[in-house]
Amino acid sequence: MTKSTYQFPEGFLWGGATAANQLEGAYLEGGKGMNLADVMPGGKIRFKLITTPGFNFEIDKEKYTYPNHDGIDFYHRYAEDIALFAEMGFKTFRLSIAWSRIFPNGDELEPNEEGLAFYDRVFDECLKHGIEPLVTISHYEMPLYLIKEYGGWRNREVIGLFERYATTLFNRYKKKVKYWLTFNEINGATHMPIFGLGFSPATEEDRLQESFQGLHHQFVASSLAVKACHEIIPDAQIGCMLIYAPVYAYDCNPANVLHAMKEEQIFNYICGDVQVRGEYPAFTKRYFKENGIKLDMQQGDLEIIKQYPVDFISFSYYMSRTEKKELTEEEKANGNIFNGVKNPFLKASDWGWEIDPTGLRIALNQLYDRYRVPLFIVENGLGAYDKVEEDGSINDDYRINYLRDHIEAMGEAIEDGVDLMGYTPWGCIDLVSASTGEMSKRYGFIYVDKHDDGSGTLERKKKKSFFWYKNVIATNGKEL
């Protein structure tokens, strides 16, 4: 334990983050319809399948496993898990609502009461322990019917269906939820449209055109959700959610610096500019022209986007990214849905994700300088192999060191003048990995006895990091 010299704000929202499709399980219970995650196979084959054009969105249990079907059974064990979060001292718990629990197909006129009642119970349990729910409305779990019959977010009709869904949530939970997020990691959609936009492009040539058209529809839908949220829950705050990675030039060669700048603009700033500033940034005009992207916008779209920006920016931070205009295959670094050049100054996780806590301080400063709205880190963490010792302990000092370094970077950014609302490390309890469908890629403070082959008792165990993070929260970041 080290003493921190940083002063975190009073009321800072310490907590943890999850997603419905990765922990709930019970994929056919309570009137829930099938969603995207339900057809995602488990194992490292997942990433290859979902990034190959023409993914068929079908279940084939003879060839693959489907770990999201069971998750970690949060659907039945939520009270036990929330009690553990409360024991750590969580001020907030980020979770998502499965759209297909509320509207099984996505286009029904009336919601599914069983689904609504389930989240009532979850929120009540959180509030009983003094934990504020932070709710992501759409987190990689689009109803499968909307994917197959509507073509996902390429179809403009989905805007109205999402507005109905979001409005239903605001009306139902207006006395229970004060913090909302619209779309998870919205800017990642251009790299992997299957997750955020609910479609697999037929060809790589279609990817950019269809992705940016789908994003435009989401921008309109997000603004309509902001409008409805403010009207129905006047004291609520609703934010966007980005995946953010500062982009470094490989060296001081101006060609590499310019390349890195362009990569940063396209990946990090388009979605933030539209959702916070309320307009497409100037550089998109040339980018769209050079890439043959022609957006179908209807009258009033830009006015809606301008009139209803989000209240704050939330984002995930796992790594930075280093770019070089010309690179060989050997120079590439693996990362969270994108590649870059290997950074010789950084170590990497077991999954090849480069570890860069200073990059978090850079990210916070970049975002706050550009937007001047409150920021919220809603994902950050280390996916690693954890070992259960003979005495049942899990000594994950590597995770503690990772989180300590990133919290110190947050403290530095606050000293720099950044307005930071809170911090919810990803996978506060072990859950199914989104990118690979593995249980062995563990992030949590709480170990779940569930394994890649589907075996396990689902018993929960407190890791060493559980007690460390409990003390961090109790001292408001003064003891790390």
Automatic annotation (TrEMBL):
Protein's UniProt name: Glycoside hydrolase family 1 protein
Keywords: Glycosidase, Hydrolase
Entry-linked Gene3D superfamilies: Glycosidases (3.20.20.80)
Signal peptide: none
Record GO terms (molecular function): hydrolase activity, acting on glycosyl bonds
Keyword Hydrolase among record annotations: yes
Active site: E379
SUPFAM superfamilies to which the protein is assigned, alphabetical: (Trans)glycosidases
UniProt EC number: 3.2.1.-
Family in the record: Belongs to the glycosyl hydrolase 1 family.
Domain of life from the UniProt record: Bacteria
InterPro entries: GH (IPR017853), GH_1_N_CS (IPR033132), Glyco_hydro_1 (IPR001360), Glyco_hydro_1_AS (IPR018120)
Organism phylogeny: Bacteria, Bacillati, Bacillota, Bacilli, Bacillales
Enzyme class per UniProt: hydrolase
Organism of derivation: Cytobacillus spartinae
Keyword Transferase included in the entry's annotation: no
